[in-house]
């Protein structure tokens, strides 16, 4: 899989020598969308999901397009970004202080390096496999739970599948077993 790499001028600071760092940087929403995401609130059968971003509304989009058509307008809302279960591998976030910063400084200038897997070219099946692996790493009990057949049927219906005949052999692996895999 291809990795995306981004670098941003940044400042990091902490309230005391023993506290965690907070990093501030500026990046375009288009770039952040390539390596990050904000959970969006959605309605499912009249129940609102959890999430931080409001659900999409075309009226709001028109308003935002109008607002940003004036180059002097800026969005002053910060985004809180935190890496999920990542390490120095295919995906990571790292702050590199510049040469003028000292280890004991509570404010440091430097660069924020973001390396992220590029998911734009993967198949839906591969995305579901990665999602399953992530969920099971967060909630290990899921790997031994039985599949709720009515829920699976509803899921297929909402996706437009009319049955097993439309599922590839690889995708069949997700539903063949008695447990969620």
Write a structural description:
This protein has 181 residues and is an alpha+beta fold. The protein is 29% helix and 20% strand. The strands form 2 sheets. The protein has a 4-stranded antiparallel beta sheet with strand order 2-1-6-5. Strands 3-4 form a two-stranded antiparallel ribbon.
Structural class: alpha+beta
pLDDT < 50 stretches:
162-167, 169-173, 175-181
Rg calculated over all Cα atoms: 21 Å
| Helix-strand topology string | EEHEEHEEHHH
Overall mean pLDDT stands at: 77
Strand content: 15-25%
Determine the fraction of residues in helical runs and give it as a percent range.
Answer: 25-40%
Strand order of the largest sheet: 2-1-6-5
Number of helices: 5
Number of strands: 6
Q: Shape from CA axes?
A: extended
Distance N to C terminus: 22 Å
Largest beta sheet, briefly? 4 strands, antiparallel
């Amino acid at each position: 899989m291809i990795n995306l790499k981004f670098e941003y001028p940044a400042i990091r600071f902490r309230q005391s020598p023993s506290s965690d760092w907070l990093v501030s940087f500026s990046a375009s929403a288009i770039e952040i969308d390539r390596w990050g995401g904000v959970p969006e609130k959605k309605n499912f059968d009249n129940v609102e999901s959890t999430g931080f971003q409001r659900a999409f509304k075309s009226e709001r989009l028109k308003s935002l397009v109008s607002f940003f058509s004036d180059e002097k307008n800026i969005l002053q809302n910060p985004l809180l970004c935190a890496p999920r279960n990542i390490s120095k591998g295919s995906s990571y976030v790292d702050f590199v202080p510049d040469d003028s910063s000292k280890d004991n400084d509570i404010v440091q200038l430097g660069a924020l390096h973001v390396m992220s897997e590029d998911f734009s070219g993967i198949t839906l099946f591969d995305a579901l496999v990665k999602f399953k692996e992530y969920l099971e790493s967060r909630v290990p009990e899921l790997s031994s739970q039985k599949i709720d057949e009515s829920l699976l049927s509803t899921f297929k219906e909402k996706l437009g599948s009319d049955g097993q005949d439309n599922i590839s052999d690889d995708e069949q692996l997700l539903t063949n077993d008695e447990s969620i895999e």
